[in-house]
Amino acid sequence: MSERSRQIEHDAAAWLARRDGGDWSTVDAAALDAWLSAATAHKVAFLRLEAAWLQSGRLKALGAGLAAGELPDRGRWSQTRFGPHAAGVRESAPAFDATSAPPGTRTRNLPPQRGGRWLAAAAAFAVCAISLTGLWRSYEQVEPLSYRTPVGALRSIGLADGSAATLSSDSTIDVALSRHERNIDLVRGEAYFDVAKDRARPFAVQAGDHRIVAVGTRFAVRRDGDEIRVVVTEGTVRLESAGADGRDQPVTLLPAGSSALANASGVLVRAGSAADAERALDWRRGYLVFLDTPLAVAVAEFNRYNTRPLVIGDATAAQLRIGGSFRWSNAELFVNLLEQAVPVRAEREAERIVLYSR
To answer: How far apart are CA 55 and CA 209, in angstroms?
Structure first.
């Protein structure tokens, strides 16, 4: 918040507290109207803080020293710099106690401690009101937060709603949480979500033309261009997709253990166990698991985690099938194992490794 905005918030708070006093007059009302008319920002700040004032029972914080649950009496606070002397209506009154004023300074007599109490109360209200304003903004005005990982790195993120996200290599998500919605935009890559239960605020992940909705569950979403893959390890999620013609396709419910591959042509669902789903997400533990997988597919997976790419040198090499569990951080070891287990030879260059059949 800028210094000017902060001052406007303080001024609006002071006006509200002054109006709550017992000696509010038509002169005071005219002065307030003049202040409100001076700038749109004044009116916006006043109305917003007035709503906070009303909703909080006139902010019990202003009643410092009162018994719990007791609200301050009307007229307890008065004499702000926006009192009857505001807006040039009368002579300006000092905002300090006469006993501490320098010699020759004009002061106005106040009842004992009344001025001090008002200043403390006004300051307390300003701080509380501005804090409530910030809280209101955080709930009503959603400001997305962006998280990303570089190639070869994972990142775990705790979200404000109690959920957690784990980003895979070279991934980006935008997070927008409010008191009504929990929206995640998977911009690129893959992310695993451990969703805190909140039936009033569904947790939705948008990935291109696809939307994955959950209440409280665990699942991963991967985005490859216009195609996505969803893997559910716990609970049930709802997959909503748009077809090639832009029309919504039938909703797909995915229980724990299942996975789905979705694109503009449709949704392909594969059933399985929770253990199968966990193995498909072993990248979280640093591994890639292949089961009778074409070498071209395995190479593409390794390239998601490494800056020195593996390159398929010919069509025969691309069709070779492999299986096993490999650390994605050690592509060199993966290539060594390939040369020993399958008919592949590798040519190691400074910027890449090319795999040929033999």
So the answer is: 40
Q: Is the pLDDT of residue 271 over 50?
A: yes
pLDDT in tens, 89-100: 433 333 333 333
**For the residues of 141-176, what is the DSSP string, one character each?**
S---EEEE--TT--EEEE-TTS-EEEE-TT-EEEEE
**CATH class as words, domain 286-357:** alpha beta
Cβ neighbours around 185 below 10 Å, total: 16
Q: What residue ranges in the chain does DSSP mark as E strands?
A: 145-148, 155-158, 164-167, 172-177, 182-194, 203-207, 210-214, 218-224, 227-234, 236-241, 252-255, 259-263, 266-270, 287-294, 310-312, 321-327, 344-348, 353-357
6, pLDDT greater than 80 = no
Contact 183, 193 (CB under 8 A): no
* Cα–Cα separations (whole angstroms), residue 93 to 7, 105, 179: 19, 11, 44
DSSP 181: -
Domains of the chain by residue range: 3-140, 145-277, 286-357
CATH architecture of 145-277: Sandwich (2.60)
Q: Which residue has the tokens 């935008």?
A: 174
* Least reliable range by pLDDT among 60-69, 121-130, 188-197, 228-237: 60-69
Share of the chain above pLDDT 70, in %: 71
Average pLDDT over residues 252-280: 93
Q: Note the pTM of the prediction, 2 decimals.
A: 0.61
Which tokens in the block code for residue 324?
A: 């096993």
Q: Is 64 helix (H, G, I), strand (E, B) or coil?
A: coil
